[in-house]
Structures are given as structure tokens and as C-alpha cells.
Amino acid sequence: MPMRGELSAPTMRAAWQKQPAEPVWRQIFEILWSPDLIVVIALAALGLAATICVSLLSPSFANIIG
To answer: How many helices (H) and strands (E) does the chain have?
Structure first.
């Protein structure tokens, strides 16, 4: 990899040019459809469903044992 002083001036200028900004809606879409977020939402939904089931069944379970 060449050092900064070894690069020609046009190459250095091209490296420092900014990329055009992505639209906000595209960034939001990519975040919402990322596989990591889908896994987190699925696990949270599973935990919420388990919590609801346990809270609904706990009084009858206590009556069976007692």
C-alpha cells in the first residue's frame, strides 16, 4: 500500500471526495430489514408470549398444586 506522499495529486483528490448522501428513507428501510433486528424482535415476541402464558396459567397452576 503506497504512502500518502507517494500518491499522485489526482488520486489523493479523488480519495477525499465525499460520497453522495443516501436518502433517509433508504437508511430506515435497511435498518428495519436487517437480520439482527428481525432476530431481536422475534425473541422479544417469544418472551412476551411466554410471559403472557405464564401470567394466565399461574393461578390455575397454584390451585392444582395446593
So the answer is: 3, 0
If we measure between CA atoms, which residue out of 45, 25, 49 comes closest to residue 37?
45
Q: Which three cell numbers stand for residue 25?
A: 428513507
All three cell numbers of 19: 460520497
C-alpha cell read off for 41: 424482535
pLDDT per position as a tens digit, 1-41: 556 666 665 555 555 566 677 788 888 888 888 999 999 99
Do 41 and 49 contact (CB within 8 A), yes or no? no
CA 66 to centroid of chain Cα atoms: 45
Domain coordinates of the chain in residue numbers?
23-66
pTM of the model: 0.51
